[in-house]
Specification:
The complex is a heterodimer of chains A (about 180) and B (about 300). With about 180 residues, chain A is an all-alpha fold. In chain A, about 60% of the residues lie in helices and about 0% in strands. The termini of chain A are far apart. Chain B is mainly β and about 300 residues long. Classes of the chains: A mainly alpha (about 180), B mainly beta (about 300). Chains A and B meet through helix 2, helix 3, helix 4, strand 1 and helix 6 of A and helix 1, helix 2, strand 6, strand 9 and strand 16 of B.
């Protein structure tokens, strides 16, 4: 990984993309937690890749590459989330896409899907739970990423877990 | 440690499905010109089936006008419930004159409110030819009712609310070479809107811009627009009919939490850990009639 990042710092685009693809799942789950719409998610990752590559010379510690990318991604997701509802479109310029009739090619795990489990949380709760459990950041690290108090992060994690338990108590988490 | 905690602590080992589009976006990000993936309209949030609607006063001519001007499907709102309601006259043609202010003329044109949807169209006239502009935006818009219920606001706290999907669309209506106007539609979905008798609407700026020219914003008009709409009693006397769910769910993992009939459709709320946005759902009655489903998944 570090070798790819060093090549990327020297301007090698392919190495940079390879490094991003190595953390692709982390990035997808975070953006999916914050944004529901797949097109918004693709916009966020595209913006993230562009910004990160043009600023990679600013990366001081190769071990923080993933955290650095995630921080950029969260900012991009937040921007898209907040601006989405202001979006105003011309009736002439947009072709309809049908977002209801998706195909059924999603992988069907026997376990409940993590993203489905958290889907009824607020956008911020989803993001925090994802960073904490899926990406395995500590509450302190999350507080830095999201610029929130560490105690706030902890209480939001507890509250989110209570919500999940309440919703799925009977079906999944008896005991 | 309870079962949930155990599950969450192992969640990073789960095989998460990554859409091919996401991977391709990463791969192509540095190859191509910047290309937006953005779809302007968020998916709406409930499973709603258009069903026997309560028929209200007819207004066929106006409904035709409405559909000619704003085909909701043309900007991603496949809502046959709303369309059927409008066809049956569930819409208010607002009778007001243009208000002139700051090189701008504006008036509200029509309104639709029920418990699920809020739909407002405002018409703008300008003192110049605007046919070359490609973008339009109303800034700092706030809509409140007589009881100070905030229906819509661009305040950031308001936008954090996940329950509401906002869609906005606009269209230039060209009358002749020099006289044209913009129709702006605000379409809100997903909240139990109050039974308001008056709506107080204000905004502070309209922006016209060209997205293809280097500098995106080409014209801003600062203004202090305020107007009041007297809401038709069609809307504030509306009734919503809750349905008693007699049948328990037969399919494991899917529960019907409640169902209700409103003017814009019959809505069934499902709680499920197995339904996701890729799930295809059909609604069929005992006579094997399949209902037209619109919008799903939250």
């Amino acid at each position: 990984m570090n070798e790819l990042i060093i090549k990327a710092i020297n301007g090698d685009k392919d190495s940079f993309i390879k490094a991003i693809l190595k953390i692709e799942k982390d990035l997808y789950v975070i953006s999916k937690a914050r944004l529901k719409n797949e097109d918004d998610i693709c916009d966020a990752i595209q913006e993230t890749v562009l910004e990160a590559f043009s600023n990679i010379h600013k990366l001081r510690d190769l071990n923080l590459f993933k955290t650095w990318i995630i921080k950029i991604l969260i900012n991009k997701c937040n921007y898209i989330y907040k601006n989405n509802k202001k979006y105003n479109i011309s009736f002439e310029d947009n072709e309809l896409e049908n977002y209801i009739c998706f195909d059924n090619n999603i992988s069907q795990n026997s376990n409940i899907d993590f993203l489905l489990l958290i889907k009824d949380l607020t956008s911020q709760e989803r993001l925090i739970i994802t960073l904490y459990y899926y990406n395995e950041f500590t509450s302190k690290e999350i507080s830095k990423l999201l610029k929130l108090n560490e105690n706030t992060i902890r209480s939001k994690i507890s509250r989110a877990k209570l919500k999940i338990k309440e919703k799925y108590r009977k079906e999944l988490f008896n005991g | 440690m309870d079962n949930l905690e155990k599950y969450l602590n192992n969640v990073n080992k789960q095989d998460i499905y990554i859409p091919e589009k996401f991977t391709n976006t990463i791969k192509n990000s540095l190859k191509n010109e910047k290309k937006t993936n953005h779809r302007p309209i968020s998916i709406t949030k409930v499973i709603a089936a258009s069903s026997a609607l309560i028929l209200l006063t007819g207004s066929g001519v106006f409904a035709t006008f409405y559909f000619n001007i704003f085909d909701l499907s043309s900007f991603g709102i496949n809502n046959s419930g709303v369309n059927t309601a409008v066809e049956n006259g569930y819409i208010q043609n607002i009778n007001m004159n243009y208000i002139k202010k700051d090189n701008l003329q504006y008036k509200a044109e029509y309104l639709l409110i029920d418990d699920k949807f809020f739909d407002l169209a405002v018409n703008f006239k300008f003192n110049e030819d605007i046919s070359n502009y490609q973008g339009f935006h109303i800034s700092n818009i706030n809509i409140k009712d007589e009881n100070n219920n905030l229906i819509y606001s661009e305040d950031s706290n308001f936008e954090e609310n996940d329950d509401l999907t906002t869609s906005m669309g606009w269209k230039i209506i060209k009358k002749n070479d020099t006289e044209n106007s913009i129709k702006q539609l605000l379409f809100l979905d997903g909240r139990h809107f109050p039974k308001s008798k008056k709506l107080y609407i204000n905004f502070s700026q309209v922006v016209l811009y060209n997205v293809n020219n280097g500098k995106p914003i080409t014209k801003k008009i600062d203004t202090d627009c305020n107007f009041v709409i007297d809401v038709d009693n069609l809307f504030y006397t509306r009734q919503i009919s809750p349905y008693y769910i007699a049948t328990k769910t037969y399919y494991p993992g899917v529960k019907i939490s409640n169902a209700e009939l409103a003017n814009t459709g019959f809505t069934i709320y499902l709680n499920s850990s197995i339904i996701n946005e890729k799930t295809k759902i059909k609604l069929i009655d005992e006579a094997n009639n399949e209902f037209n489903l619109v919008n799903s998944y939250r």
